[in-house]
Specification:
Number of helices of chain B: 2
CATH superfamily of chain A: Mitochondrial biogenesis AIM24
Radius of gyration of chain B: 19 Å
Largest sheet of chain B: 7 strands, antiparallel
Strand order of the largest sheet of chain A: 3-20-25-22-13-18-15
CATH class of chain B: Alpha Beta
Number of strands of chain B: 23
Strand content of chain B: over 45%
Strand order of the largest sheet of chain B: 3-18-23-20-13-16-15
Oligomer: heterodimer
Helix content of chain A: under 10%
Distance between the termini of chain A: 41 Å
Structural class of chain A: mainly beta
Order of helices and strands of chain B: EEEEEEEEEHEEEEEEHEEEEEEEE
Chain lengths: 297, 265
């Protein structure tokens, strides 16, 4: 861990250090003049980025506008650039240069419903992005070499010095049989992995609800709804966990197995973030699954 | 004491007023303007009241806001029937025939608008998260809104529609075939739109241009021109083209941050 210069403060949310100036963190935009909201169970609520808060990235800047369906308005300076999926483009100055970036693994990405092509936007000029859904923007400044795993379809934009790849989640389960057999990917089939290169970078995510953070100690575990996971440090492990409730005798074996809870088990060390909007998993009996732990009450 | 000018609608208010009596914008908050020059439409406080003619509008709720109107005798508002949330049983309503019926049907626009008139109470909601954009219209104004964006207008506001010119604009512009046009002549009026998500407005100087996602376009002064422009990028497996709407001043442009995504051509 790097030493914090005297008089500087560490942002409780993005963990970046900066001089104590202004009501919001210059690295992630989080409000610093409000009391940290921590639940009794240890989840820290990420405060929504204030309307019109600014985040500095290199010589460029991004301003967060709006609170219901927030907009990230980038002022790109010189040759600095960002990339994003084309469907989040809200508006731009005519001076901004837009080009395509083709991604590898196109066929697999298309099957998984992921964007095949990213757009690159180079300055100078203003360009604004919106995920087009109600929720919060989460800004994750990354130090050189720092990696972050994020759930698919949560990515809004990243600065050009943040590399992007994707990997199988290896989290799946099968319900039904015969013609009704169905494979479910509660986290999606692929996860996005972002890595800051030689200089600090910025990753912007869209969280469809409120966002909560937690630091897991080495070996510490927590069960979360699979669809709720927003991002995690690459050091955090994950797999499915099936939990079968204890029931009265009159509930048949099959019924009790249909009442199961399907969790994502996260294993520290590292930081995890969940969103309060997550979708639901199937209630059908699980026939087979990726690597999973079980518990019968 | 000096009167307070509303930063949104520019009308004067009595000293000590917390919100504009003409548009409901909070008067004790400065305008929120981004570094790039976009002004955020004022988020109306829950239960804010404002007036038009002799009637009173109250805005209720903040996530999916409702506009409730106490219509005075002699006042009326018109609207698309599916935005009605509730009304007093005794509040009279009538069908308001629009011109260009067959064209409107083909364009997916409402064939018949509904007219509610006073005295009585009636409430409206667009049934989706967003904000109400209150646009008091001074005499002699012309304003275009994307189809299905308007919540209601007072009876002194004339209503027509304009066909979007140019096949490329219709096919790639993301705004359908028509825009709603609202015009005031001798008397002022009130126009209320529903913007999905957050709403931002910008004034363009003569000849100034801005590119916006066509689905995000919400309203513009009639003096602002709109042209679909193809970008030098391709998207998707089929390498489809991508279009943005180029808006050219002079005049104001309003956009919404949650939008119907247009189809790339």
């Amino acid at each position: 861990m790097t030493a914090v210069p005297e008089g500087w403060v560490v942002c409780r949310y993005c963990r970046m250090t900066h001089p104590p100036a202004g009501p919001s963190c210059p690295s992630c935009g989080a409000a610093l003049d409000v009391r940290t909201a921590v639940s009794r169970s240890g989840w820290t609520e990420q405060p929504p980025i204030r309307d019109m808060a600014r985040i500095q990235i290199g010589a460029s800047r991004v301003q967060i506008e709006g609170t219901q369906v927030p907009v990230a308005d980038f002022a790109l300076v010189g040759e600095e650039w960002i990339y994003f999926s084309h469907h989040v483009l809200l508006r731009c100055d005519p001076s901004v240069r837009l080009t395509n970036t083709r991604l590898s693994g196109g066929w697999n990405r298309m099957l998984a419903g992921l964007p095949l092509v990213m757009l690159e936007a180079r300055g100078p000029g203003q360009i604004a992005l919106s995920d087009n859904h109600a929720g919060e923007l989460v800004a994750l400044p990354l130090l050189p070499g720092q990696q972050m795993w994020t759930r698919e379809h949560r990515f809004l934009a990243a600065t050009g010095n943040v590399s992007y790849t994707w990997q199988q989640t290896d989290v799946w389960y099968v319900t039904g049989s015969g013609d009704d057999r169905e494979t479910h990917y509660p986290l999606g089939q692929f996860g996005d992995v972002f890595t800051a290169q030689q200089t600090p970078g910025l990753l912007l995510l869209h969280s469809p609800g409120n966002t909560f953070l937690r630091d897991l100690g080495p070996g510490e575990t927590i069960l979360v709804q699979p669809g709720a996971l927003l991002y995690r440090d690459i050091s955090v492990g994950m797999h499915l966990h099936l939990e079968y409730p204890h029931g009265p005798q009159r509930i048949s074996w099959l019924s009790s197995y249909r009442q199961r809870s399907l969790w994502l088990r996260l294993i520290g060390p590292g930081r995890v973030a969940v969103s309060s909007v997550f979708g639901h998993t199937s209630h059908e009996a699980v026939r087979s699954s990726s690597s999973a732990t079980q518990h019968q009450w | 004491m000096e009167r307070i000018e509303c930063q949104w609608c520019r009308l004067q208010n009595e000293p000590g007023t917390a919100s504009c009596t003409t548009c409901g914008a909070p008067l004790d908050h400065a305008n929120l303007v981004s570094d790039s020059g976009w002004r955020e439409a004022p988020r109306l406080r829950d239960m804010t009241e404002f007036r038009f003619s002799n009637s009173v509008v109250q805005v209720e709720g903040e996530l999916v806001p409702v506009a409730e109107i106490a219509l005075a005798a002699g006042d009326a508002v018109y609207f698309e029937h599916h935005v009605l949330l509730w009304k007093d049983e005794a509040t009279p309503v009538a069908a308001m025939q629009t011109q260009g019926g067959m064209k409107r049907v083909l364009g997916g626009m409402p064939f018949v608008l509904t007219l509610g008139y006073g005295p009585g109470r009636v409430a409206f909601s667009r049934d989706s998260p967003g904000e109400l954009v209150v646009l008091p219209m001074h005499p002699g104004m012309e304003l275009d809104a994307r189809e299905h964006a308007f919540l209601l207008a007072s009876h002194t506001v004339g209503y027509s529609f304009v066909r979007i010119q140019g096949l490329a604009n219709v096919l790639h512009g993301g705004n359908g075939m028509y825009l709603d046009r609202f015009v005031t002549t001798g008397a002022p009026g009130l126009l209320m739109l529903h913007g999905y998500g957050d709403v931002f407005e910008r004034w363009l100087r003569p000849g100034e241009k801005i590119m916006v996602e066509p689905g995000a376009f919400l309203y513009k002064d009639a003096s602002v021109t709109m042209q679909a422009v193809q970008l030098p990028v391709k998207t998707g497996l089929l390498r489809r083209g991508m279009y943005l709407a180029e808006m050219t001043g002079p005049g104001r442009v309003g956009i919404q941050s949650m939008y119907v995504h247009h189809h790339a051509g």
